[in-house]
């Protein structure tokens, strides 16, 4: 491969089988091995990662996005998509589409006895507001700044102003 082809490969190609997986764990419900695929690439509007979710575990809290759209591609295993108050079985070969908005709070749960491996792909819309129905949290992010709070702890618009 010539120098320009090597440069282009570094900007445009990631092989998830070659990236080191980082463990994200918060007992007793959350445990995944994860690699960020899009970091360091030329991508500006798409984010991607790979998760290998341990049996009986979840990757993140039940949540919904107001700006970002997500897609999940199940590569290996089976589990459950908790979405809009329902439990939907998922398995290898399934492609899951989650649009933004309050109609589709979601969470992937590995309800099986084997690892669940999937790609997660999302638009990187910013600013973003996420809601967490189980805990009542809100999360606002610009990409550089992230704030988390609950609506009942929200400050008054004029708080601290002269």
From TrEMBL:
Q: Does the keyword Heme apply?
A: no
This protein is called: Putative cupin superfamily protein
Taxonomic lineage is: Bacteria, Pseudomonadati, Pseudomonadota, Betaproteobacteria, Burkholderiales
Question: What SUPFAM superfamilies does UniProt report for this protein, alphabetically?
Answer: RmlC-like cupins (SSF51182)
Q: Which residues form the Cupin type-2 domain?
A: 52-121
Keywords in alphabetical order, please: Metal-binding
Which superkingdom is the protein from? Bacteria
PANTHER family in the cross-refs: CUPIN TYPE-2 DOMAIN-CONTAINING PROTEIN (PTHR35848:SF6), OXALATE-BINDING PROTEIN (PTHR35848)
């Amino acid at each position: 491969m010539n120098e320009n082809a090597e440069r282009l490969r570094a900007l445009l190609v990631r092989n998830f089988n070659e990236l080191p997986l980082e463990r994200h764990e918060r007992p007793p419900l959350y445990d995944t091995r994860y690699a960020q695929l899009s970091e360091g690439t030329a991508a500006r509007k798409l984010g991607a990662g790979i998760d290998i979710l341990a049996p009986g575990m979840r990757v993140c809290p039940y949540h919904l996005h107001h700006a970002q759209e997500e897609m999940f591609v199940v590569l290996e295993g089976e589990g459950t998509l908790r979405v809009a108050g329902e439990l939907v079985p998922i398995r290898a070969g399934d492609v899951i589409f989650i649009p933004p908005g309050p109609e589709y709070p979601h969470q992937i749960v590995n309800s099986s006895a084997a690892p669940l491996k999937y790609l997660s792909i999302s638009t990187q819309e910013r600013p973003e507001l996420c809601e967490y129905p189980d805990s009542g949290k809100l999360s606002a992010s610009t990409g550089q700044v992230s704030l988390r709070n609950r609506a009942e702890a929200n400050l008054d618009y004029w708080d601290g102003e002269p």
